[in-house]
Amino acid sequence: MSLFQRLTVVSVRPETRDAVVVTFAVPPEHREAYRYEAGQHLSIRADIDGEDVRRSYSICSAAQDETLRVAIKRIDDGLFSSWAFEHLKPGVALDVMAPAGHFNVPLVPEARRHHVAFAAGSGITPILSLIKTTLKAEAHSRFTLIYGNRASSSVIFKDELADLKDRYMGRFNLVFILSREHQDVDLFNGRIDAAKCDALLKQWVNPEDIDVAYICGPQLMMEQVRDSLIGNGIAKSSIKLELFGTAMNGAARKPRTATINGEAGCEVTVIHDGRSQQFSVRKNGPSLLDAALAHGIELPYACKGGVCGTCRCKRVHGEVDLDNQFALEDYELARGFILSCQSFPVSDRLTLDFDQET
Ligand SMILES: Cc1cc2nc3c(=O)[nH]c(=O)nc-3n(C[C@H](O)[C@H](O)[C@H](O)COP(=O)(O)OP(=O)(O)OC[C@H]3O[C@@H](n4cnc5c(N)ncnc54)[C@H](O)[C@@H]3O)c2cc1C
Ligand code: FES
After folding, report:
1. Considering every ligand atom, which ligand is closest to the CA of 324?
2. The pLDDT of residue 257
3. Ligand with the closest atom to the CA of 15
4. In this prediction, what percent of the chain has a pLDDT beyond 90?
């Protein structure tokens, strides 16, 4: 199957001044491939002034719904998000990759868990899907959302969250943290940072009562909340992170951990979609993803910056140097997963399998 399918936009709904909610139609023949888990994202491709531009957008609909929906927040001077605001209308067809990502935990219908999410700005998108999907799938579990914004006018999904609060009274706890609008409870004013998280864990959510924590927002907020959660006794393995972008985007390579002399080459075998293909690459050359693409091998990717995880594959044989990586968890690294956009060959031979999920 081709990496992208053309999906037609069926609706574009303004959510705030800077965010739109986009719903796609999935034709019956692609329904299975586009079935998703809460927390997953879509890589979307558009031709913008002759350039192949790819970006990832998290799914905000519930996994049990027969709906495929994302929310796009416009970034000042953002290439794709500005284009999307101008061009996306019902009837427009876009190239969309099948859902991907691991920002979730397996759902257990009989579980009695407390899921807690920290979101800021557009980071609410995958969290909304997680809330809706989890509350539906786990009838005895609870969900607490700590959601940071500047003011109530910039809160994405304000109405939908209020509806969820009414529908799941007693199981859904919603806390808005606002940085530029005063609220009566002082704890809820300001930004979500390490101090705020510590205070919330002292006064609002008992850390001993947290089974799973999800964090999605800017890099600094995510790191501070993660460190606070760990400092308050929550196991790292119970914390799920999703990063939308990083200040490191486009940053220079880190120094190699392995010394590569001269023009040594590596023979690479790539397994993708059941097909095995070979090519050679200089060890001091481009990333394994770029080398494969240059050899005409079509592989999944979006950000090329080690953030989205779309280019994830398993290193079955050989050694690589993995540069910037923000998408893989410790257990995935331990199992041999790498990001091909940030990996450079070290051994003389390598086998990379894009078909392995676990
Ligand atoms: C797994 C994943 C899921 C994502 N889900 C969503 C989502 O649900 N909704 C959504 O709106 N975006 C989401 N993003 C971010 C999205 O992919 C784009 O990066 C974002 O829309 C900006 O793209 P652009 O082309 O408009 O901006 P670019 O032209 O790529 O960037 C313009 C400027 O904005 C900065 N920038 C890039 N991304 C961001 C950001 N997220 N926040 C603030 N500044 C940024 C850049 O550093 C640059 O200076 C997700 C990203 C990832 C990796
Ligand atoms: S393409 Fe996004 S992590 Fe490699």
Report:
1. 2
2. 63
3. 1
4. 92
Q: Secondary structure of 93-130 in the HEC alphabet?
A: EEEEECCECCCCCCCCCCCCCEEEEEEEHHHHHHHHHH
The CB of 327 under 6 Å from ligand 2? The reply is: yes
pLDDT of residue 249: 54
Best residue for ligand 2 mutational test, from 341, 343, 344 (most atoms within 8 Å of Cβ):
341
CA atoms of 51 and 45, how far apart (whole Å): 10
Do 139 and 236 contact (CB within 8 A), yes or no? no
Is the pLDDT reported for residue 251 higher than 80? no
Q: Domains of the chain by range and CATH?
A: 4-97 (2.40.30.10), 114-243 (3.40.50.80), 265-353 (3.10.20.30)
The alpha carbon dihedral of 305, 310, 119, 7 has a sign of: positive
Which tokens sit at 172? 């859904």
CA of 282 to the centre of ligand 1 (A): 32
Look at the pTM and tell me if it is higher than 0.70.
Answer: yes
Q: Which ligand is nearest to the CA of 125?
A: 1
Average pLDDT of the segment spanning 109-121: 98
Nearest CA to ligand 1 atom 28: 78
